[in-house]
Write a structure and sequence with these properties.
Layout lengths: L2 E3 L5 E3 L8 E6 L6 H12 L1 H5 L3 E7 L3 H11 L4 E4 L4 H5 L3 E6 L2 E6 L2 E5 L5 E6 L6 H10 L3
């Protein structure tokens, strides 16, 4: 488990959710890009439905808290966005990759989603996710966790 700051610079300790909530933890490359915006807004649109199944949704990217706050506020995003500026949690979940572009090596996050049950067990993992419609697909899986 891990703890990261959210868009409001409040530390979110995921371990405190164990035994209480299912978690949808999704990783995305960067605030403000088209795919990331679709994904965050669709998860936000379904947030109440996820809550009915004792599930919280958290997005993680390497962006800092201020970038998250701006992204959240300008797009009406209601889910929690966590700042993994050092890439520590991204590495733990195996979603950080090195890419080479124009002779430069840079790190990039593979768009991925993990459905974690109340016991802390990863029940589903998705990599290279297509953001459109993904929130609905994940909601169907969360419903089956009961």
């Amino acid at each position: 488990m891990f703890a990261l700051p959210d868009a409001d610079m409040q530390t979110v300790d995921v371990a405190k959710l164990r035994g209480k909530k299912n978690i949808v933890l999704y990783f995305y490359p960067k605030d403000g890009t088209p795919g990331c915006t679709i994904q965050a807004t669709e998860f936000s649109d379904h947030e109440d439905e996820f809550a009915r199944y004792d599930c919280v949704i958290m997005g993680v990217s390497p962006d800092d808290c201020l970038a998250h706050a701006e992204f959240r506020d300008s797009n009406g995003v209601s889910i929690r966005l966590l700042a993994d500026t050092e890439g520590e949690v991204c590495r733990k979940y195996g979603v950080l990759e090195e890419k080479e572009s124009n002779g430069q090596r840079r790190r990039s996050v593979v768009r991925s989603t993990f459905v974690i049950d109340k016991k802390g067990m990863v029940r589903h993992a998705f990599y290279n996710v297509n953001p459109r419609g993904h929130a609905s697909d994940v909601l169907d899986l969360v419903k089956s966790l009961r």
